[in-house]
Amino acid sequence: MKVNRLILVAAAIALIGGLAVKPAIAYFTDTATVSKTIPISLGDVELPEMDDDVNQMIKTIAISNTGEYDIFVRAKALYPDTCTITKQTSTNWSDLDGGYYYYSEILKPGEKTEDLNLKIDFDGSTSDFNVIIIQEATKVLYDEEGNAYADWTNAISNEDQVQPVEVIEQMR
Prior knowledge:
elongated; Immunoglobulin-like; alpha+beta
């Protein structure tokens, strides 16, 4: 009688266990996939827009701040040795170190720089050349006294989007 009772209890446990396994496996292996796109704006990782145009061998450049922060901008012209570039009258642009032309004003969101005019002279040894403009932007930072300054070590640039380094080196 004890053996029958033991077999009956074992059978009941096996039956309950067998019935409970399928829902338990379903619980632990069930998945749900949710898909939603959320736009993320970091504000300062977007490069400002640049307009450039050439008319009668004068390249005109203007940079617009399309971001959300105040920025400083600068531009650099890359050109072959057969050319020379001369900055024409451009009120708020100055050529300082490293071949860059710096815009002296803080560029607020939605604002655009004054035109930077670069006169292109070439020796005529080739009819095929290009003047490439590299632009950089950096957020406006302030010191303890509230004076604005630029940290160009944290600048974003279009340099890697312009042309392969080998082609630029050949032009110099």
